[in-house]
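Methods — Computational structure assignment.
A single polypeptide chain was analysed. Its primary sequence is given first, followed by the predicted tertiary structure written as structure tokens.
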Amino acid sequence: MAEEQDELTVVDHLTELRRRLFLVAFVFVAVLVGAFFVVDPIYHYLTINALSGVEIELNAFSFWDGVGVYMKIAMLVAFGITLPVTLFQVWAFVSPGLKPKEQKATLKYIPFAFIFFLIGVAFGYFVVFPLAMTFTGSLNKQLGLIETYGMADYFKFLTNIVLPISLLFELPIVILFLTQLRILNPKLLKKMRRVAYFALVVVSVMITPADFFSAFLVLIPLILLYELSVILSTRVHKKQLAADEERKKQYEQ
């Protein structure tokens, strides 16, 4: 009987997960359709250097380059707008296993996760991407190369820089969420600091062009975000220990 109940619980969880995934997919498709109406102004904005104001002349080397870039921009817009809905559905799926206070605390992370994502997008586009374009452009000139950019390659280069950085800016929110679930704690985070720093160095080198300054410019905010995560995790963990101690005293009485 207990085994049947466990199986039923697993089936219920899978059904609930499928329902929430379907809802996220539905919202994503709906937003994607609306995003097609804003692709054109976004495309023209992204093809102008944000710092110098110099228009970049792009070329299509394939019949499908225009369609591919059009779809990529629309999907990125839909991804960004759908992100809060996705985070809420994740919270709603795991919240039944949380205590009421933990449910309220973790729900507050959703708007901050979206804000940190936007900050990451802005940092990647307005700071790192112009530096990457300047570095690659100066190197091409030193080699005597004629710069003829394909639109597909340009947007691939742009997204490969901006999107990973924007996701990395979610680090404090993820660590706070895992701390709230008691999967992580500040002691473990401090113990993992050297490994985390090494991983951040590798990531910063991978998502930036091959010059020290750009990688260092990305690494500094990532380290600060990690240290901020440790501080916030410590505060949450102290509250958890205090609540556990209070419950223990009440139980002993």
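Note: The radius of gyration is 23 Å.
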